[in-house]
Predict the structure.
Amino acid sequence: MFDWLQHFADWLIYSVLNIGAETHLGTALNFFVYDTLKILILLFLIVFLMGIVNAYFPIERLKNYLNRKKLYGLEYLFASIFGAITPFCSCSSVPLFIGFVQGGIPLGVTFAFLITSPLVNEVAIAMFIGMFGIKATLIYAGSGILLGTIGGWLLGKFNLEPMLSDWVKKILESKMQQGEYEEEKMTFGERLPGISRGAWDIVKGVVLYVIIGIAIGAFMHGYVPDNFFGQYLGGGQWWTVPFAVILAVPMYTNAAGIVPVIQVFVAKGVPLGTAIAFMMATVGLSIPEATLLKKVMSIKLISIYFGVVTLFIILSGFLFNIIL
């Protein structure tokens, strides 16, 4: 599918710039050009498709729907799927989480959204398709949604509402009954320009992270010895997955910045499951996210949330290594 891009990268680096294919610089630049163009193309296409979904099912409708309907547990899956199709990192998911809480949606359902939103989005899916293929992408996306669904359901059973911050409790005590959502009647043709602009805005918003992430990956691909990562994370020992997760927490970034690095991890001998666990922890468990969550949660509640998600990511890493 992308052979023409590889030919272009080869022509540009090896013929036009006359950099040898056997050199570290040539290998790194070829990787950078090919992956940058491929990821940006996939990114725009998938964000555009998700924009169509979001245009016909906005967050306000979701909030009101969950307030009105009894879904017998499916609301956790529903919120998790919605989190998967929203293009947010862990920190930018927090304002939507606050909106869910303010809207009166059960806390477990809001956790399902918060867990899945940074883990699975069109940015990561676009990059995964290009780098690891359909099978790995489906397993990654499905497991992320399942992680959010089970995690939200489990946290919802803990009766954690008393651990919300006083600020949130005051809002919930004084909130007014929300009005019905009035759908704006627009044809697909009328929506299309806005969807296109939205997709382009998202791509512009993450392009710097894509370039930085791929640049780091290109450097690692061209200059880091093949056995460097394999030595610490690639041996298959039981402790490599939890070690990768713990190592990832301080390394805050979004999917656009970390997926190219994960590709190099795998190329250097790290099992794909361990690498995906590292990526999930990087985008789903971060110190900046914990700082933002202090606005709506107590320290104890943040610790419970992080602990449950950490455990699930570690279990997912072990499962990935068995399946993939």
